[in-house]
Design goal:
By secondary structure, this protein is α/β, with parallel strands linked by helices. It is 52% helix and 9% strand.
Length: 680
Amino acid sequence: MPPITHRDIATIVRTARVRRGVSQRAVAERSGLSLRTLREIEQGRVRAPRASSLQRLAEVLDEPVLCPDPGPAESGPAAHAAQEPLALQILGRLAVRRGPAEVTAGTPKQQSLLGLLALRANQPVDRDEITNVLWGDDIPDSFGQLIHTYVYRIRQLLGTHAGGEATPALLVRRSSGYELIVSQETHLDLLWFRRCVRLAGQAREAEQPERETALLEEALTLWRGLVLEGMGAGLTDHPVAAEALHQRVTSALRLADLVLPRGRYEDVIDHLGPIARDNPVHEGVHARLVTALAGSGQRATALEVFAAVDRRLRNDSGIGAGDELRRAQSAILRTDEEAAPRPAARRPAGEPVRPFQMPPGIRDYVDRPEQQRILHHLTGRGPQVAFGAAPIAALYGPVGVGKSILAARVAASSRPTFRDGVLHGELDSAAPGEVRLLLGRFLTALGVPGEALPESLPARTSLYRNLLAKRQLLVVLDGAPGEQAVRPFVPGGVSSALLVCSREPLSGLEGARHFRITPFDADQAAALLASVTGEGRVRAERGAADRITALCGGLPLAVRVAGMRLAARPHWPLSRLAERLEDPRQRLDELVMGDLDVAGRITRALPETGSTLGDAVSRLVSSAASFTIAATAGLLGCSPREAEDVLEALVDRQVLEGPARSGGEYAFLPLTRLAAQRRE
């Protein structure tokens, strides 16, 4: 299947769109492209469209010939060891890895097919199951050709990254469908997990508790989230996925029973914490988690967990916590020293405190490709180690784009690396007093007594860096106001790391790698809306769902609020909210739910009126939605260089999107423009 040239792309896109009878605007909204970009592509003026843009157009138009060939891993061929074969991971977000590097796995539909085949590894999967998982009831006319294309791409992927002489996986045709043959269990985490569980069962029968414990720990460490997390109900609710989740819970309960008597409370919290979030009314899980929290010294948290589960059970069934949970609660409340574990009696002398200060995560998280790149940078120990520097990841992006949620997921995923805990704090300003106060909180969380805290900011910074140089800690700073406020929190040594979230890029932060967090594309936004509103409602009105997410500009906060409004109004069809959002004058009024006010948050982030940037926004927002440097110079009455400086400053403030190429147009973020117009 040779690659298509840029001269063919315009004809293919235009012909496919006309054949399907959809407008350019509809295709642009569903694919997440701007209308201008789509028009440029159809008119043949884009000589080298981005691979991601062609992938999205291929999905929307059911035109597989647009799918570009799968490329190498983002880190390049040099990152691959010659003898390291491809490894598939589905116990969490789908990941295709070769050694430490992640390999691009193709379009979302191609990834779904690969996920299904991996879920049913070494078993034939018939075409009916494939079409049901990939499209549900909305099966395109060209589904056969699309499946053939996805299979072709997957075979290319497996062949390109085979590694060594052995083929880690082979996709073969069967009479009724296809089968992914995985020859070695280590090449697919689901198979490796099953093997560890099977061997742990044999060790239990042989009365070998140490070996059983080690095998269960190895099995549970393979999990990074729910099975094929973020890939739709057809995969996440698949019977094989449900069985694997059941085995995970059973294994974690058995491990807890083995290690709790030995005082290994932190290990139980690490393994049962994520499971408890996904099983909010599982009494066995929460009973052991409550016991472990109390044993680690977190008695108040343990009682809060019990109360929350008891409340959920009463709301769901009218019956509160059962005997197992109540026994765990009673053990905490009793004053008998043996019945109420205390950290001073349980923790060996000299063992460091291991805080985990991240706020609670959310269940309706939608995966981002940036997550793995950020995680790899923080935990991969890249070239900065050679210079004795701790890894720093700086996340920036518009208000409501989900930086804090992404940081929380990265922190949770990195716990196996940062075994000494996670510190989390927020900064409202760069004032030295606020920085000093937060450093004091961190030092206290690390076990420094109040009377031993240094008074001055430099002394606290020095003590903080000395402590982190000896430990493996992740430090998360949210709402960072600038580089000066962040520098005191840079860890000493190379064993800890810093994750910073800010609205503006912290370009002057030495040694940091910067990640711009952008609004969701069409598929991500639809997945979030479905998670909040309900998969069935979105599937039944996918067109209206795409209109809603497009009118929200793909901004996760706005999509979440829209989903919450629909969830609170089950009698509304999605088209009702889409119609209400169509009016730009009323759109921001529709995006309010409780204390979540999209317009309020965006407006607070705009430059103040009366300032140079604020006045520029006032003039620009009253003109077109996008503008060149020359047009801006004329509008502001300044030189082109001064106009470019203003535009770039507004890009840094996340008010404008920068041009795709030099000399291109700057444009307001859609909801930001509406908020700025309202302020005027």
